[in-house]
Amino acid sequence: MKKKQFIRAFDNSTKSIAIKSTRRIFFNHLYQPIEERGHFHVDQMYGSGTGILLKHENKFYLLTAHHVINKATKFNFTNPSPFWVTSNSKYKTESIYDFLMPARIIHIGELISDRGVSIDTGDIVLIELFPPFPRHKPNHFLDLDSRRHRLLRKNEFFEGQLLLAGGFPFESNSFEFYDEPVGIFTHSTHVHRRIMDGVCEISDGEPYMTLDGISEENYMNLSGASGGIATNIKDKSNEVQMAGMLVSAGPTLIRFIPSYLIEHAIINKDQARTTLIDPAIEGRPTLEEVSSLIAHYASVI
User: Which of 28, 63, 85, 97 lies at 20 to 30 Å from 42 by C-alpha?
Assistant: First the structure.
C-alpha cells in the first residue's frame, strides 16, 4: 500500500461507523436511596469506561467489559438507571431522551470457554438497553442485523495487519468538581474519543495489537478505554469491520477479545445468565412495536 493510499485509508477508517459506535459510559450516584427520595435523581456523575453500541434482532445493546461495570458498581445498583450512554456518537444533549438507559445485563462472557491465553475471554457483558424514542434513534452503531458482515472472521486476521482501537480513557475524560456550584452545575467533564493505531500480532492462535513504533502519540495511560473497539483499516469507511473489544491496554500493547468469539456469544445470548437492572423492562414493547404503534396513530390522525 502506497503512503498516500494508506493515509487516505487511515483517515477514512477513523471516521467509520465501527469507530463511531463507541460510547462513553456515564455512571451516576445517589446520596439518598431512591426509595427514600421518592423520585429519580442524580447527585453525581463519576467513573470511566467505554462500550460499543450495537443492534441485534431489532434491539439495542451496549457491549462492554465485565470489569468496567464491576469496578464502578460492584453490580450493586443504587437506582434503576445506574449508568447512561448517549444516543448519538457526538456528545450533544438537550434532554434526558438523548441518553440510552440500561435494562438488563446478559453475561455472555460465561458462554466463552477459557482458552488458556493471556486475557480473560469471559470479561465481557452485553447490556440490553431500553428502546429509544423514534426521534432519538442512535445515529451510529454496529448493525448486526444488516447484510454487511460487521465482524472480522477468524481467517481474516493476520500478523502485520493494520488495526485501529477506539475508546474513552479517563485521562482524556476526567471529571472536574467545583468547590462552589457554578450556576446550577457542581461538576463537569470532557468527552473525548481516543483513536490509536497499531499492528496485529498473533500468539497462541489469538490476535492482539502492538502500538510500539507505529504512532508518534503517547499512550501511557489508557485506563477507561476497556470496552472500546478494535477494527481493521479499509480504503472505504463503510468497509471497516470490528476486530474485537478492548479489555486491557498499556503504552505499547492492547489486548482485545476477538470478534469471532464475541459473535458466537451474541448469537447464543439467550442461553446466558442475566441480571435485571430496571424492572420496567418486563413487558416493555420492542423498538419495532413502538415504531409500528406510532405509525398507526399517525395514519389515523
Answer: 63
C-alpha cell at position 250: 498499556
Q: Name 130's Cβ contacts closer than 8 Å, sequence gap at least 6.
A: 100, 101, 102, 103, 278, 280, 281, 284
Whole-model pTM: value is 0.88
CATH number at residue 73: 2.40.10.120
**What's the CA angle centered on 36, arms 35 and 40, to 5 degrees?**
60
Answer for the pair 249, 208: CB distance below 8 angstroms, yes or no.
no
- Number of domain units in the chain: 1
Cα separation, 237 vs 185, in Å, equals 38
**Boundaries of domain holding 37:** 3-300
- Going residue by residue through the chain, which has 301 residues, state the pLDDT in tens, using 9 for 90 and above: 567 777 888 899 999 999 999 999 999 988 877 778 777 778 888 888 999 999 999 999 999 999 999 999 989 887 889 999 999 998 777 788 899 999 999 999 999 987 666 788 899 999 999 999 888 899 999 999 998 889 999 999 999 999 999 999 988 888 888 888 888 888 888 888 999 999 999 998 899 999 865 665 666 678 889 999 999 999 999 999 999 999 998 878 899 999 999 999 999 999 999 999 998 887 655 556 555 545 544 444 4
Q: What are phi and psi for residue 223, nearest 5 degrees?
A: -60, 130
Name the phi and psi angles at 122, rounded to 5: -90, 0
